[in-house]
Amino acid sequence: MDFLTYSFIFLLSMFLGIELIRKVPAQLHTPLMSGSNAISGISLIGAMTAVAIAGDSTVALILAGFAVAFGMINVVGGYLVTDRMLAMFKHKG
Amino acid sequence: MEFIATILFLFAGVCFIMGLKMLSKSETARKGNMVSAAGMTTAAIGTLVWIIAKHGGHIEATTIIWIVVGMIAGTVVGIPAAKLVKMTAMPEMVALFNGFGGIASLLVGWSELQRYWVEHAQIAKVTDAATEVMGALAEPITEAAKEAAQMPAASAISIFLAVLIGGVTFTGSVVAFLKLSERMKSAPMLYPGQQVVNALLLVVLLACGTWIAIDPTAIIPLYLAIVLSFVLGVACVIPIGGGDMPVVISLLNSYSGLAACAAGFAVNNVLLIITGALVGASGIILTRIMCIAMNRSLGNVLFSGFGAADTGGGATGDGEKREAKVLTPDKAYFMLEAAQKVIFVPGYGMAVAQAQHAVKELANLMEANGTEVQFVVHPVAGRMPGHMNVLLAEADVPYEALAELDDVNPTMELVDVAIVLGANDVVNPLALEEGNPISGMPIAEVQRAKTVFTMKRSLASGYAGIANPLFYLDNNYMVLGDAKKTLQALIDEFKSDD
What we know:
The complex is a heterodimer of chains A (about 90) and B (about 500). Chain A has a domain at about 35-95. Chain A contains four helices and no strands. Chain A has helices at about 5-20, 30-40, 45-55, 60-90. Chain B is mostly helical. Chain B is about 60% helix and about 5% strand. A six-stranded parallel β-sheet of chain B has the order 3-2-1-4-5-6. Chain B is elongated. The interface between A and B is large, with 84 and 121 residues.
């Protein structure tokens, strides 16, 4: 696929994102932010790919390996924190 | 094999879209987060399948070791950080996680260029050897090989953007973390020519980007871009004060999505592009909501150094020395005991004093006493979007007891006691007048309630740096001191009465 196709996908996804969460109640602002923050850990997938294609470059491999670790912190931490918050919202007095 | 990977990616993409949609409704939010987590797991598995497919059915030991070790390291850090963090420290923890996502994108871009340099050098070696042996005859082949290996400008630009946005997200988030956790002064830091310096930084960065696009083998612009993007991230967040952090956090969240997106362009991964764009969009929406709640433009939040000019507390413009009435908890108790309807307006002070449990206990006692109790949450109260909601939820305050500004303002006259709990600017009646920094900001109009109790540590002005005339109104009483202790004193009064 070429750059133009990617750009189309990017733009359409932005619009989709805006439509998806146009109306969000105030009490969900934090969980939504934290949840989408966890999703931004998707760079983990980019990092895994970078490890696999690093080839003969040791530097590239090391950098990508660290990227996997950082991405993983974002993913694991982000989802757990969000779940902790949402679990609290569930219990009603 | 590659087909299976594609299907898994598609499934992951659908999970993220469904997950975000469910996250924006209170009944489905928790499930939505799990759906999105399932999407992330699927995406990781899909990537492994894709890697195996790319390597003709097997996977190299170094690859798997680096991926597994990286994942374990990330998990070992991530789980305790998420499990142990206190609810009051949630804003800074989210900021820090966000920063890690940013640095991951930067590293992906950097790694991609390093790989390209090595590959480029290898091809150059081969073509040089060919030229040596075959002379001019080799030229068509070597030229074709060089051209095929040449990185397209679009890829080079994507890599640059992943580095730039990722770097800004990382250091910006770290500064936000330091400010929120009070390891650094949360007041805006300003110096003369600040915006000129920032603009210059951006210009040099764009020059680096152009250089990389023209010659992806150039080493200097990449390293310069990494360093300068770090500097830019710091420079962008230091002039923004603590009270504007809800906007900054949502904006940085948006950036981390866009950085992932750029990394997706760099490594040709559609899932990264889609998902990064979804996060980017959600961050932009939250940023907009926060700005509207303060009646300020995004530009004003980012560049004005709002609240830097502290005019000091207590002083009133007309020189007339007014006095605020101070009330002790035992007197406050008698008024609360007789009240029919009470509202709480929590602010950052409640988070600092960790008073959410005490306030809930007091609310319970008052309800048992036949009083109607509501909590009024201003959208930008606290240090992160919806900060107060999280703390009140931790203390088991039910949804039904929460009210938004529009629910209570029209009937404020019916409120017997409005308790302002560590909030200031969001109840400042000056917002209803023209010609001051908070003009036009929607507020909880507690000044129209029959009585107001303001629980605060001192008479100092709020984040906006302007005095609050509410404190000097006839129907307002200051209950000075630590909010938690004050609430505890009130709770004791209620209990001793029974």
